[in-house]
Amino acid sequence: MKALKIITDDPWLEPVADVISRRYRHYEQLLERINNDFGSLMQFAGWHHYLGIHFDEKADGWYYREYAPQAKDMFLFGDFNRWHRTDCRMERKEYGVWEVFLPAEKYKDCFVHGSKVKVLVHGDNGWYERIPVFSTRVVQDDATKDFCAQLWFPDAIPFAWEADKPQTKKTKDLFIYECHIGMAQEYGGVGTYSEFKENILPYIKKAGYNALQIMAVAEHPYYGSFGYHVSNFFAPSSRFGTPEELKALVKAAHEMGIAVIMDIVHSHTVKNFNEGINEFDGSPAGGYLHAGERGYHQLWDSRLFDYGRIETLRLLLSNVRYWMEEFHFDGFRFDGVTSLLYKHHGLGCEWSREEYFGDNVDNDAVCYLQLANILIHEINKNAVSISEDVSGMPGMTYPVASGGFGFDFRLGMGLPDYWIRFLEKYHHEWSVGEMWNTLLHRTRQTKTIAYCESHDQALVGDKTIAFRLMDANMYWHMQVDDNNMIVADGMAMHKMIRLITIALGGEAYLNFMGNEFGHPEWIDFPRKENGWSYFYARRQWSLMKNPQLKYRFLADFDRAMIRISKKFRLMSADHPLQLNVDEANKTLIFERAGLIFVFNWHRAHSIPDYHFRVPDSGVYQLLLNTDDARFGGFDRVDSTTEYHTRKMNGENMLSVYNVSRSALVFEKVR
């Protein structure tokens, strides 16, 4: 077999070439099996068109089918039969599938849009009322808090996608605005898809972001799980509105030129019986999961998929196809890839070549991710797929045909961790050289999404960058005429951290909603400990809009930073060129995309006539200045000044006022 490109490109992988080749053969053999048995990967990923509840025009009635190989008996019941649990018995068919047919002649007046159903499953674990696995609508009763499947036949006319144009951002610079629909509004309650479309989308467009990454889309019983304990994989969360309202949100984003990425959770599932798929057919594996210890994630208190089962692959790949075709999502951010890839889930692990290619890797999970990426790009060749992997597994963004996983991007998960460590010691000894090396710690082939802080840092128990920098001062000293130096220093650092991260950290950029203007409050979802309050499960946009407060300065800077990054194609530019590392003055200078970046991180050293070399001679002008008064700075540098290079020892040199706690970006104008 010819050596895979991932191996020929990276000599470090040569000692494990056999392992990588075996993985690739495993993928090839499985894909061949799928093509032989099902016709194609697309056909294989169409299980949702067969299982679940569907109207059959030829038979003139509804079929409900469910995969439950170990079930002893099954009954469909609900509003249509006055909740008589054992009136409508299902029949066992081939390959572990159960089926029942409801003729329209008998049920057309009761099996209708909006009515509710469940399935009663008799298995080795007893009798349980369950929600059909392929339900596309699941609702919760306000009084009993019980979840139930809801028939969703809104009308005979499909949603009007005709004018919709899915956004193709893979080959363009990607600026992602990560959001949570429920907590995106300012009032104390659960926001809706429609409110987000009307109130937040225009702001995201104005801010310059061209991609929206939505958390918590698939139904989850516990609101405070941030959407990561999914129970119903084919049902958009009803707490935010109807499926049509989600579609309208996606379509409106597309009309604004904004791609929509779904945060998809295929790494685990909620352990609940009443809502989820755990032990669905009465067996420990339930048809889709690992049984025993391997099927349980102790840290997350959730159940784990068995990616070696063909039915699990059909379930998850059908889910990928469903969200792309039914809701026009432009791609996915795959959550928990590290947990999915390793049998130890990455807990307490020191990452090494031996870990990446040893016995702790779940090769069935590797194959699932490869198939998922092939399918995603078969449906939409310009779709975006993102891996949330903290392990640094090699080949994450290599094409599958080259021996990789096929993702378009990986999240630069080490960057938020670096900034936490940096802020813990930045009053003491730290290195601008280390900053440079950390932000560029990736291979040229590994397309990375840079971000300063994760959504987890906005939660109670952690701190955002703004809170680490300014803490309680944000409550009392954010008025425009307040000269509090902790706030001034914190705002300066907030801008600098974002600018250097976008300039060096990756090939795309991500921000969690509100962080761009230093949102002062944490996220605390309603729970018993806070009296089930929504007070902190919201975003206070009014702070940013208030002309008397400084939050608007941070938002204005973020907008300017994104605009310049777009104009100069910063994220897709060649590798940056280091020009100066000055540890004594904490100054780092580099070139990227034809722009010169000067970062002075020192608390006190402002240096007139600071000389440094630049690649090209000519005239330069200040393009962006974090110290600009319009961004809440002290306006210590004149933005109208022109800077002429001069020769010194054969080098092109610039001389600038190198201002403390600021970053200057210069453009060559002639």
Describe this structure in words.
- With 670 residues, this protein is α+β, with helices and mostly antiparallel strands.
- The chain is built from 17 helices and 31 strands.
- It has an 8-stranded parallel β-barrel. The protein has a 6-stranded antiparallel sheet with strand order 23-24-25-31-27-28.
- Strand 1 and strand 2 form a beta hairpin.
- It starts with a helix and ends with a strand.
List keywords for this structure.
alpha+beta, eight-stranded parallel barrel, six-stranded antiparallel β-sheet, 31 strands, globular
Radius of gyration: 27 Å
Strand content: 15-25%
How far apart the termini lie comes to 54 Å
Largest sheet: 8 strands, parallel, barrel
Q: Which geometry do the CA atoms define?
A: globular
Strand order of the largest sheet: 10-11-14-18-19-20-21-22
Helical content (DSSP H or I, runs of 4+) = 25-40%
Question: How many beta-strand runs?
Answer: 31
Number of helices: 17
Q: Mean pLDDT across all residues, rounded?
A: 95
Provide the low-confidence segments as ranges: none
Kindly name the structural category: alpha+beta
